[in-house]
Amino acid sequence: MTDQRLKRLGLALAAPALALVAAFLITSLVLVVAGDSVGGVWGQILSIPEARGLTNIVNSATVYYLSGVAVAIGFRMNLFNIGVDGQYRVASFAAAVVAGEAWLPGWLNTAAAILAAMLVGAAWAGIAGLLRVTRGVSEVISTIMLNAIATALVAFLLRKAAVDDPGSNITATKEIPEGSRIPGFTLFPGAPNQVYGFVFIAIVVGVVYWLVINKTRFGFDLRATGLSETAAVASGIDVKKMILVSMLLSGAAAGLVGLPILFGEAFAYGSTFQSGLGFAGIAIALLGRNHPVGIALGALLFAFLDEQSNPLQIVQDVSPDIVKITQGVIVLTVVIAYEVVRRYGVRLEQRQVAAALDAERRTGSTSKEVTG
Amino acid sequence: MTTSVPDGTTNPETGDVVVRLRGIGKTFPGVIANHDIDIDVRRGTVHAIVGENGAGKSTLMKILYGVQKPDSGTIEIHGRPVDLGSPSDAIGAGVGMVFQHFMLADNFTVLENVVLGAEKLHGIGDAARAEIRRLSEAYGLDVDPDVLVEDLGVGARQRIEILKVLYRGASVIILDEPTAVLVPQEVDELFDNLRELKAEGLAVIFISHKLDEVLSVADTVTVVRRGTTVDTRPAAGVTSRQLAELMVGSELPSPSTETSTVTDQPVLEVRDLTLPAPTAGLAGTGGRPLLSDVDLTIHRGEILGVAGVEGNGQAELVEAIMGMRPGATGSVRLFGADLGGLSTRRRREAGIGYIPEDRHRHALLLDAPLWENRVLGHQTREPNVSGPFIDRKGARTDTQRIVEEYDVRTPGIDVLARALSGGNQQKLIIGREMTGEPSLLVAAHPTRGVDVGAQAAIWDHIKRARRDGLAVLLISADLDELIGLSDTIRVILRGRLVPGAFDPATVTPQQLGSAMTGAGDDAAGDVA
Ligand SMILES: Nc1ncnc2c1ncn2[C@@H]1O[C@H](COP(=O)(O)OP(=O)(O)OP(=O)(O)O)[C@@H](O)[C@H]1O
Ligand SMILES: [Mg+2]
Question: Which residue CA neighbors atom 7 of ligand 1 most closely?
């Protein structure tokens, strides 16, 4: 039994490993064609990061993780929420305004801002959900549109909400007061920078995600709807409601994506606030197979590649964009690798059954249709 | 294994062998689906394959159709050894298959479904349309190339599948349980078609659990038991009882007659149930309503059978009662309480068990393990849940119980529902829906695809529950089942219940059949 378990775990890990190897090979090929030093680039990327780098990796993995979970919630229901990008930007802006205005003192202010971010993210995603259940508009289309609208809306509102800082041409919201920030902590001794305190909230989000999806009735309904909408309807699930609710949840999770940065580093939402985090989430959810631990590993991997590629320009005279290729290729290869490994697993098991049958026959007993 | 065909009998033994299977073996995780299979199929014959649920019939056919690769053995078609890596290889070799579960794209038209993947034959336009019309005429398939498959019932879908195979020019046609969905008249029509195909030199491989049918249409019968061929015989000279005993390897129980348990306490009362036609395009309200003014009452301890040709409103009736048809008007009452406005879930919770007609679309999560399928449709009730959480342990224990009580042949409750044979999937569904003491069971074709032994067992389960007061709405294409189980039989025709009830004690399948097709129509007096 434990032997079986080990084998299954081995197979589960084989797929991403296979995908990584393939992605590395393809990236190397690109490097060779471009005439860059393959060894030099990998030497840099695969070097052991210093404490400062490790801290950066954990921090951006935190952000990626939330993004991956937000996307995965939709995936479990066959909803393709491309709109995490727009959702987190609208939500981060809202949180920055609430926290910056500081209507409430200290931690209450923080809590209110987080709540605002989740509500705004949910509402923004909810628009796509509503369009889907009332008008049948594909959430893929509507969330793409909503991303574009989010960009314009935030730029417009930012101008209204921005504080005038004569010394700088950066527009940004009011700074979050000291008492409402989320303090970081030192995880890696000797690091000059700190890990975001928000990492704990991300862990809680992961645990809640796992619990809700796998252990609750609601999660069962969600997965059932994702597996077969017709069977879900016949079993008594209100599919429209499920679509709306999971879009709202996905949006609420998306609302958290920008907050580690907001409360741990930037303290204001400005025109330079990091964008594109929602798209990475799609890749990471795929890589992690929508599993909370898988998503965490995927997020760490993406963060690692990002961090390690930073010095490439200086050290190797190669654009760090090369890892974007690697990241993209990983997503493609991982999908293939999961399928390959699954088939291999099935064949392996078939061979065992066949061997068991042979043995049985040799000992003279009649074969059984069902074994085990 | 040897095929024990006596020498020098009738023509089935003299034709050319078009398909020769030798030593075919196939294992799945935890299951030996096929081993040492030997079969010869001859030109111009209908060759039936019979066996219990899970015996390995569908697996064997999937191997012959290139869907699955055998682990061992050889396949010869028209005398040439072939390696069938995919259905297109099989089609190239002249083998076509109609599956137990149809494989049509819902939101495509019939034409699109038929030409899909065969665009080279007659293009995708008028030539293809003309060819479909021609085939449809020639074999009486009654297929309109331009309707959406989505709008078609099970029977029509099957005819499209057959047409698809013919369109691709197959010389060997595999039909996996084609008659399960047909009423007797349609079965006769199908068999006429098969005889025509046979006369033109095609070979038909035919799988069915209805042994009388097998004997009436087949020339040769092969019995498969626990994954291997145990006997091949000419159909002339075997009885269905002998076949059944060969399949099971033991004697069959004989069905017991029951005294009526009908009470006068109404459980389900349906009044004026009407379901308007879907507004088709801009034309608006053109078609006839799917259901018109349906009235029926089922009492405690009563089984009400509804007979009808596929597509006459049975599916809609069932779905309206289950609250899956928002446009329905009229009233549905359970123990006097109006169900109108209640969701499907609330109706289930109120004590309605539901066995849908299409198990793959409506009753199962194919890619979820059996125990999760046990939860499906019962995800708000014990033993599946405790509070807002799924009670994994409770659900698993109960799944194990169902597997044992209903003889679901499976290596375990963690295998995916997809891995079960069709009949075993059905047994699991029945077990699930009979659990929790429902007061009303809405059952559409409860024993479709189930072997004779299991069918008798399911009937016993239903009868026992009826004794304890279960009310059943039974929809079935199997008239013997309807007559054997029901206390009252109604006929549905074009969305209306034909006035008057039939007494199962006196009615014959022929009488039912003519009422179902509206023979002697508009003279609504031809009822008991
Ligand atoms: N894809 C699969 N994965 C695992 N096991 C499978 C798979 N397909 C079939 N099996 C197993 O192989 C055995 C034979 O199944 P098969 O579908 O061939 O039975 P069958 O004779 O067609 O039965 P039925 O009359 O119920 O349709 C069953 O035990 C089934 O559980
Ligand atoms: Mg089968």
Answer: B419
